[in-house]
Amino acid sequence: MEFMKIFHDANVIGFLLLFFRFAALFIAVPIFSHKNIPMQIKAAMAFFFTIVFYSSMPPLEIEITLPTIVLAVLSEFMLGLVVGIVLLLAYHVITFAGGIISFMMGFSMASAIDPQSGVSMPIISQFLSLMGLMVLLSLDLHHWVLLFVDRSLKVVPLGGFMLSEDLFHYIIHAASNMFLVGFMIAFPIVALSWLADVIFGMLMKTMPQFNLLVIGFPIKIMVSFVVLIATFASTMLIVKTQMVEAFNALVMFF
Protein backbone atom coordinates (compact mmCIF):
# COMPACT_ATOMS: atom_id res chain seq x y z
CA MET A 1 0.00 0.00 0.00
CA GLU A 2 2.88 2.36 0.71
CA PHE A 3 4.10 1.74 -2.82
CA MET A 4 0.73 2.70 -4.27
CA LYS A 5 0.96 6.13 -2.63
CA ILE A 6 3.59 6.98 -5.22
CA PHE A 7 0.86 6.95 -7.86
CA HIS A 8 -1.20 9.57 -6.07
CA ASP A 9 -2.50 12.31 -8.39
CA ALA A 10 -0.22 14.99 -6.90
CA ASN A 11 2.86 12.78 -7.22
CA VAL A 12 2.11 11.83 -10.83
CA ILE A 13 1.47 15.46 -11.87
CA GLY A 14 4.62 16.57 -10.04
CA PHE A 15 6.65 13.89 -11.81
CA LEU A 16 5.33 15.06 -15.20
CA LEU A 17 6.07 18.72 -14.44
CA LEU A 18 9.60 17.86 -13.32
CA PHE A 19 10.05 15.87 -16.53
CA PHE A 20 8.95 18.88 -18.60
CA ARG A 21 11.39 21.11 -16.71
CA PHE A 22 14.29 18.82 -17.61
CA ALA A 23 13.02 18.36 -21.18
CA ALA A 24 12.81 22.12 -21.79
CA LEU A 25 16.34 22.63 -20.45
CA PHE A 26 17.76 19.84 -22.60
CA ILE A 27 16.09 21.37 -25.66
CA ALA A 28 17.37 24.92 -25.12
CA VAL A 29 20.59 24.88 -23.05
CA PRO A 30 23.97 24.67 -24.88
CA ILE A 31 25.67 21.24 -24.93
CA PHE A 32 22.38 19.42 -24.24
CA SER A 33 20.69 21.11 -27.22
CA HIS A 34 23.33 19.88 -29.65
CA LYS A 35 21.64 18.87 -32.91
CA ASN A 36 23.67 15.67 -33.14
CA ILE A 37 22.03 14.37 -29.96
CA PRO A 38 18.87 12.49 -31.05
CA MET A 39 15.60 13.65 -29.54
CA GLN A 40 15.05 10.14 -28.14
CA ILE A 41 18.30 10.44 -26.16
CA LYS A 42 17.27 13.84 -24.79
CA ALA A 43 13.89 12.44 -23.74
CA ALA A 44 15.57 9.44 -22.10
CA MET A 45 17.98 11.74 -20.24
CA ALA A 46 15.09 13.91 -19.06
CA PHE A 47 13.21 10.83 -17.83
CA PHE A 48 16.30 9.46 -16.06
CA PHE A 49 17.09 12.70 -14.24
CA THR A 50 13.42 13.11 -13.33
CA ILE A 51 13.63 9.77 -11.52
CA VAL A 52 16.90 10.82 -9.83
CA PHE A 53 15.53 14.19 -8.65
CA TYR A 54 12.07 12.89 -7.78
CA SER A 55 13.02 12.37 -4.14
CA SER A 56 14.01 16.04 -3.76
CA MET A 57 10.83 17.29 -5.46
CA PRO A 58 8.79 19.55 -3.15
CA PRO A 59 5.06 18.93 -2.61
CA LEU A 60 2.87 20.12 -5.46
CA GLU A 61 1.31 23.51 -4.72
CA ILE A 62 -1.05 23.90 -7.68
CA GLU A 63 -4.65 22.79 -7.87
CA ILE A 64 -5.09 19.58 -9.86
CA THR A 65 -7.40 20.71 -12.63
CA LEU A 66 -6.94 20.58 -16.39
CA PRO A 67 -6.46 24.37 -16.91
CA THR A 68 -3.93 24.68 -14.07
CA ILE A 69 -2.00 21.61 -15.29
CA VAL A 70 -1.78 23.05 -18.81
CA LEU A 71 -0.58 26.39 -17.45
CA ALA A 72 1.94 24.60 -15.23
CA VAL A 73 3.35 22.67 -18.20
CA LEU A 74 3.68 25.91 -20.20
CA SER A 75 5.38 27.50 -17.19
CA GLU A 76 7.95 24.69 -17.02
CA PHE A 77 8.68 24.97 -20.74
CA MET A 78 8.99 28.75 -20.37
CA LEU A 79 11.52 28.31 -17.55
CA GLY A 80 13.71 26.01 -19.66
CA LEU A 81 13.48 28.18 -22.77
CA VAL A 82 14.30 31.39 -20.90
CA VAL A 83 17.34 29.76 -19.26
CA GLY A 84 18.41 28.54 -22.69
CA ILE A 85 18.02 32.03 -24.20
CA VAL A 86 20.11 33.61 -21.44
CA LEU A 87 22.94 31.10 -21.90
CA LEU A 88 22.76 31.12 -25.70
CA LEU A 89 23.05 34.91 -25.82
CA ALA A 90 26.33 34.59 -23.91
CA TYR A 91 27.50 31.65 -26.03
CA HIS A 92 26.74 33.26 -29.42
CA VAL A 93 29.10 36.12 -28.65
CA ILE A 94 31.80 34.02 -30.27
CA THR A 95 29.74 33.06 -33.34
CA PHE A 96 28.89 36.71 -33.97
CA ALA A 97 32.58 37.60 -33.71
CA GLY A 98 33.42 34.73 -36.06
CA GLY A 99 30.98 36.11 -38.64
CA ILE A 100 32.70 39.50 -38.59
CA ILE A 101 36.14 37.89 -38.82
CA SER A 102 35.05 35.70 -41.73
CA PHE A 103 33.72 38.75 -43.58
CA MET A 104 36.95 40.70 -43.08
CA MET A 105 39.04 37.71 -44.19
CA GLY A 106 36.91 37.15 -47.29
CA PHE A 107 35.55 33.83 -46.00
CA SER A 108 31.92 34.90 -45.71
CA MET A 109 31.00 32.65 -48.66
CA ALA A 110 32.85 29.66 -47.14
CA SER A 111 30.08 28.34 -44.91
CA ALA A 112 29.25 24.97 -43.40
CA ILE A 113 26.52 23.45 -41.24
CA ASP A 114 27.22 24.09 -37.58
CA PRO A 115 26.67 20.85 -35.60
CA GLN A 116 25.68 22.81 -32.50
CA SER A 117 22.82 24.86 -33.97
CA GLY A 118 22.16 23.01 -37.24
CA VAL A 119 22.30 26.20 -39.33
CA SER A 120 24.77 27.34 -41.98
CA MET A 121 27.43 29.74 -40.73
CA PRO A 122 30.85 31.00 -41.89
CA ILE A 123 33.72 28.59 -41.41
CA ILE A 124 35.50 30.79 -38.83
CA SER A 125 32.29 31.04 -36.79
CA GLN A 126 31.96 27.27 -36.86
CA PHE A 127 35.55 26.79 -35.71
CA LEU A 128 35.18 29.28 -32.84
CA SER A 129 31.80 27.76 -31.93
CA LEU A 130 33.34 24.30 -31.58
CA MET A 131 36.19 25.70 -29.49
CA GLY A 132 33.65 27.53 -27.33
CA LEU A 133 31.82 24.23 -26.87
CA MET A 134 35.05 22.75 -25.52
CA VAL A 135 35.24 25.67 -23.08
CA LEU A 136 31.70 24.90 -21.86
CA LEU A 137 32.65 21.28 -21.30
CA SER A 138 35.76 22.35 -19.38
CA LEU A 139 33.52 24.55 -17.20
CA ASP A 140 31.28 21.54 -16.45
CA LEU A 141 28.26 23.47 -17.70
CA HIS A 142 26.32 20.21 -17.95
CA HIS A 143 26.83 19.75 -14.20
CA TRP A 144 25.83 23.36 -13.53
CA VAL A 145 22.50 22.76 -15.25
CA LEU A 146 21.75 19.84 -12.94
CA LEU A 147 22.70 21.92 -9.90
CA PHE A 148 20.47 24.71 -11.21
CA VAL A 149 17.51 22.31 -11.38
CA ASP A 150 18.20 21.11 -7.84
CA ARG A 151 18.25 24.66 -6.51
CA SER A 152 15.28 25.79 -8.58
CA LEU A 153 13.14 23.02 -7.07
CA LYS A 154 13.69 24.57 -3.65
CA VAL A 155 12.83 28.11 -4.70
CA VAL A 156 10.66 27.97 -7.85
CA PRO A 157 7.72 25.59 -7.26
CA LEU A 158 6.69 23.27 -10.07
CA GLY A 159 4.41 25.22 -12.39
CA GLY A 160 5.11 28.46 -10.53
CA PHE A 161 7.59 30.20 -12.83
CA MET A 162 6.50 33.67 -13.95
CA LEU A 163 8.19 36.08 -16.35
CA SER A 164 9.24 39.34 -14.73
CA GLU A 165 10.03 42.80 -16.03
CA ASP A 166 13.62 42.53 -14.75
CA LEU A 167 14.06 39.38 -16.82
CA PHE A 168 12.97 41.17 -20.01
CA HIS A 169 15.39 44.01 -19.27
CA TYR A 170 18.22 41.54 -18.72
CA ILE A 171 17.54 39.71 -22.00
CA ILE A 172 17.58 43.02 -23.90
CA HIS A 173 20.84 43.96 -22.17
CA ALA A 174 22.34 40.53 -22.91
CA ALA A 175 21.39 40.82 -26.59
CA SER A 176 23.06 44.23 -26.90
CA ASN A 177 26.05 42.93 -24.95
CA MET A 178 26.38 40.04 -27.43
CA PHE A 179 26.94 42.49 -30.29
CA LEU A 180 29.27 44.70 -28.22
CA VAL A 181 31.49 41.89 -26.92
CA GLY A 182 31.42 40.10 -30.28
CA PHE A 183 32.72 43.19 -32.04
CA MET A 184 35.30 43.66 -29.28
CA ILE A 185 36.61 40.13 -29.94
CA ALA A 186 36.79 40.75 -33.69
CA PHE A 187 38.19 44.29 -33.41
CA PRO A 188 41.94 43.41 -33.67
CA ILE A 189 41.38 41.64 -36.99
CA VAL A 190 38.97 44.33 -38.19
CA ALA A 191 41.46 47.09 -37.34
CA LEU A 192 44.36 45.33 -39.05
CA SER A 193 42.22 44.62 -42.13
CA TRP A 194 41.28 48.29 -42.38
CA LEU A 195 44.93 49.25 -41.95
CA ALA A 196 45.92 46.75 -44.65
CA ASP A 197 43.29 48.24 -47.00
CA VAL A 198 44.75 51.71 -46.44
CA ILE A 199 48.28 50.45 -47.10
CA PHE A 200 47.19 48.53 -50.21
CA GLY A 201 45.37 51.64 -51.48
CA MET A 202 48.53 53.72 -51.07
CA LEU A 203 50.57 51.04 -52.86
CA MET A 204 48.13 50.96 -55.76
CA LYS A 205 48.45 54.73 -56.12
CA THR A 206 52.23 54.61 -56.11
CA MET A 207 52.55 51.31 -58.02
CA PRO A 208 49.62 50.81 -60.41
CA GLN A 209 50.99 47.40 -61.38
CA PHE A 210 50.27 46.13 -57.85
CA ASN A 211 47.55 43.49 -58.17
CA LEU A 212 45.34 43.61 -55.10
CA LEU A 213 43.49 40.39 -55.88
CA VAL A 214 46.67 38.36 -56.37
CA ILE A 215 48.79 39.79 -53.55
CA GLY A 216 46.55 41.78 -51.23
CA PHE A 217 43.94 39.19 -50.20
CA PRO A 218 46.43 36.42 -49.36
CA ILE A 219 48.34 38.88 -47.19
CA LYS A 220 45.12 39.92 -45.38
CA ILE A 221 44.21 36.28 -44.78
CA MET A 222 47.69 35.48 -43.46
CA VAL A 223 47.70 38.50 -41.13
CA SER A 224 44.19 37.67 -39.91
CA PHE A 225 45.18 34.09 -39.09
CA VAL A 226 48.24 35.31 -37.19
CA VAL A 227 46.12 37.72 -35.13
CA LEU A 228 43.45 35.04 -34.60
CA ILE A 229 46.04 32.63 -33.22
CA ALA A 230 47.61 35.34 -31.05
CA THR A 231 44.26 36.36 -29.52
CA PHE A 232 42.74 32.87 -29.33
CA ALA A 233 43.46 32.34 -25.61
CA SER A 234 41.99 35.72 -24.65
CA THR A 235 38.95 35.03 -26.86
CA MET A 236 38.23 31.78 -25.05
CA LEU A 237 38.71 33.56 -21.71
CA ILE A 238 36.10 36.15 -22.75
CA VAL A 239 33.67 33.37 -23.69
CA LYS A 240 34.27 31.70 -20.33
CA THR A 241 33.65 34.97 -18.49
CA GLN A 242 30.45 35.63 -20.43
CA MET A 243 29.08 32.16 -19.68
CA VAL A 244 29.91 32.41 -15.97
CA GLU A 245 28.23 35.84 -15.75
CA ALA A 246 25.17 34.54 -17.61
CA PHE A 247 24.85 31.56 -15.29
CA ASN A 248 25.22 33.77 -12.24
CA ALA A 249 22.45 35.97 -13.67
CA LEU A 250 20.06 33.01 -13.42
CA VAL A 251 19.72 33.95 -9.75
CA MET A 252 17.06 36.42 -10.91
CA PHE A 253 14.74 33.44 -11.41
CA PHE A 254 14.82 32.87 -7.66
Shape: elongated
The Cα radius of gyration reads: 24 Å
The main sheet orders its strands as 1-2
Strand tally, please?
Answer: 2
Spell the H/E element sequence: HHHHEEHHHHH
Which spans have pLDDT < 50 for at least 5 consecutive residues? none
Structural class: mainly alpha
Average pLDDT over all residues = 77
Strand content: under 5%
First-last Cα distance: 37 Å
Largest sheet: 2 strands, antiparallel
Q: What is the percent of helical residues?
A: over 70%
Query: So how many helices?
Result: 9
Could you describe the 3D structure shown?
The chain is an all-alpha fold. It has a domain at 77-253. It contains nine helices and two strands, in the order ααααββααααα. The protein has helices spanning 9-28, 39-53, 66-91, 93-105, 123-138, 141-155, 165-206, 212-230, 232-248, and strands spanning 111-113, 120-122. Strands 1-2 form a two-stranded antiparallel ribbon. Strand 1 (111-113) and strand 2 (120-122) form a beta hairpin. The radius of gyration is 24 Å and the shape is elongated.
